[in-house]
Specification:
Organism: Fregata magnificens (Magnificent frigatebird)
Order of helices and strands: HHHHHHHHHHHHHHHHEEHHHEEHHHHH
Protein name: CFA54 protein
GO biological process, one term: cilium assembly
Helix content: 55-70%
Distance between the termini: 56 Å
Largest sheet: 2 strands, parallel
Pfam families: CFAP54_N
Strand content: under 5%
Number of helices: 24
Length: about 575
């Protein structure tokens, strides 16, 4: 930093101002590419902006007139205006990245506030630049930055607050004439989808559907203009329109599939429910949900995507399974039918019934149901307590995962293994089957409802006997998962945190018995085999230390460390 600072001081008087400023910002861009955000902010973008104002820049982002007079005293036609816009935008990007480097999960209130300040600053910069058609590149880049930050904040349950910024980004894309072309339609549809998702996260599904329908109208308007201006429609253009239309249709289906089945409370509902088991051998479409899927989407891949989106709920945790909300008969029916249809697609049967040319099940390429989508489907089945679907789907998905040579698929395999281990622990009365998972062997498992299933896992072994033994197997498995040196195959952070929280809650009971035994720690531990609880506690502590979840719950980490320290000290004194 000092070397760079000295270079700027030494050469600034010797170079033309325009040349110096241009190179200054280019160096900043190079520094951001290698993730040296602080250096780029202080020595490049910040240094450039110091010529306009000596006070804190954040103090003037609320007043558009002051903003214009401060940074653009000579108007927007000035040759340095584009550089100034670029410096302002990149400064915000650097601030956001610096916040992420110190608080990746945005857990501190100060981090959240800084992110919203950055969003406001980006919006103000775009507001000033929007009338200038030659600055459309700045508008486009601004929408990307806003989308990136907003998606991060949506993961922190901040959808209600980021909605206005995503709406602004969408309107900006519509207000800039160069950005209305087909070339930018895919990105515009992505922004529309994010806005709709925000509405759904805020439990305002009707507004999410309305906005998606609005997006569909905008796409159709552009398609009509494209047909008028060009008599020939190439394959790439068709693909862009098809993809954009699909995104909007999926968001419309997300609400329509449920609302079309809701009945007034006073409405008498006759018991004419179609048994899904009876409908299993019927030709596709077999249910009301499948008929709606067929009407709205062409192809199994698009239908499967719509099913995933309709079942997705940002408030759900995979390892906190629960029935659908709200708990209405019609909603439960739709959820069951969605899983029923998804399993049929995953098995490949729906494709055969629809007589499609390309027969596929799960693939890693563009065609077919992607491996990631299939894994998500299994997780959703677990989350909704759809155990028949979970038991059947996991067989297809695990077989696919084990056939892949790419090590990145190991992460998904590990996550599904943890779900399988958690299943009998969360519902001990429902799942009393015994099964084993052996290396390079197939496990024979007695699944619920008396059905026989086969599943394959490559590593580990387990036999379900008593709860403490189940906990030991789960604990040792999650420990082996995080002990690997490859970060990209560690389980998803949400799943890892939920597993640790579950182990810790179960472990507390055993630890209390040890502590109540008084000073005779060793005798109690050996007599009742309580050392297993100490082992689980040690594993929990090691998993937290080895993974990146230590900052998720600092209080829990401190409590675990204190418990482990107290037990070890008492054992040493015994």
């Amino acid at each position: 930093a000092n070397t760079l600072f000295n270079i700027w001081i030494k050469y600034k008087p010797r170079l033309p101002e325009w040349y110096y400023n241009e190179k200054l910002l280019k160096v900043g861009d190079s520094l951001t590419q290698i993730k040296e955000y602080k250096l780029a902010l202080l020595q490049c973008y910040g240094r450039y902006l110091q010529q306009f104002v000596s006070v804190n820049l954040d103090d003037i982002i609320d007043d558009v007139h002051q903003f214009k007079s401060t940074f653009f005293p000579n108007g927007f036609r000035d040759k340095n205006a584009a550089l100034t816009f670029h410096a302002l935008q990149e400064r915000n990007v650097c601030i956001y990245q610096m916040v992420c480097s110190g608080d990746r999960n945005l857990q501190n209130q100060e981090s959240l506030q800084t992110c919203f300040s950055v969003l406001s600053s980006l919006r103000l910069t775009m507001q000033v630049a929007l009338p200038q058609e030659n600055l459309c590149w700045l508008i486009y880049n601004g929408t990307i930055h806003i989308y990136t930050i907003c998606r991060h904040l949506m993961m922190r349950s901040q959808s209600a607050k980021v909605l206005e910024y995503l709406l602004w980004a969408s309107i900006c894309m519509e207000s800039s004439i160069p950005l209305l072309s087909v070339h930018y339609l895919t990105w515009r549809a992505t922004l529309y989808t994010a806005v709709s998702q925000c509405y759904f996260d805020c439990q305002a599904g009707i507004h999410g559907e309305i906005f998606a329908r609005r997006g569909l109208i905008k796409i159709d308007e552009l398609k009509q203009l494209e047909n008028i201006s060009s008599s020939l429609e190439n394959s790439e253009t068709k693909k862009i329109f098809k993809e954009a239309t699909l995104k909007m249709s999926v968001m419309i289906f997300k609400r329509a599939v449920y609302e079309s089945r809701r009945k007034p409370k006073s409405y008498f509902r006759p018991k004419l429910r179609v048994s899904l088991k009876e409908a299993q051998n019927l030709p596709w479409p077999r249910t009301t949900t499948e008929r709606l899927l067929t009407e709205m989407f062409d192809g199994a891949a698009a239908q499967f995507l719509a099913i995933l989106e309709a079942l997705s709920d940002s408030s759900r945790h995979v390892l906190c399974p629960a029935p659908p909300v709200p708990d209405e008969i019609e909603i439960r029916d739709v959820v069951s039918e969605l899983f029923f249809a998804g399993l049929e697609i995953l098995s490949g049967n729906s494709i055969k019934k629809q007589k499609q040319l390309n027969i596929f099940v799960i693939t890693t390429g563009e065609k077919g149901v992607s491996g990631d989508a299939a894994v998500k489907f299994v997780k959703l089945a677990f989350s909704y307590e759809e155990w028949d679907v979970f038991d059947s789907a996991i067989e297809f998905v695990v077989n696919f995962l084990q056939a892949q040579d790419d090590p990145t698929w190991k992460k998904a395999e590990v996550e599904l293994k943890l779900l399988t281990l958690m299943q009998p622990l969360l519902f001990p009365r429902k799942f009393k089957h015994s099964f084993s998972i052996n290396e390079n062997n197939t496990k024979e498992a007695r699944m619920p409802h008396g059905s026989e299933k086969k599943q394959t896992f490559r590593k580990g072994s387990l036999k379900h006997r008593e709860p403490s033994h189940d906990l030991m197997i789960l604990a040792t498995t999650v420990f082996s998962c995080v002990s690997t040196s490859k970060q990209n195959i560690q389980p998803d952070k949400e799943i890892l945190v939920d597993v640790i929280m579950f182990l810790w809650q179960k472990c507390k009971t055993g630890l209390q018995r040890i502590q109540m035994s008084g000073s005779d720690y060793l005798k109690y531990i050996h007599k009742y085999k309580a050392y297993q609880w100490v082992h689980v506690l040690w594993i929990i502590n090691e998993v937290i230390q080895k993974s990146s979840i230590a900052d998720t719950n600092v209080v829990m980490l401190a409590e675990i460390t204190l418990h482990l320290t107290a037990i070890l000290e008492n054992i040493a004194d015994s």
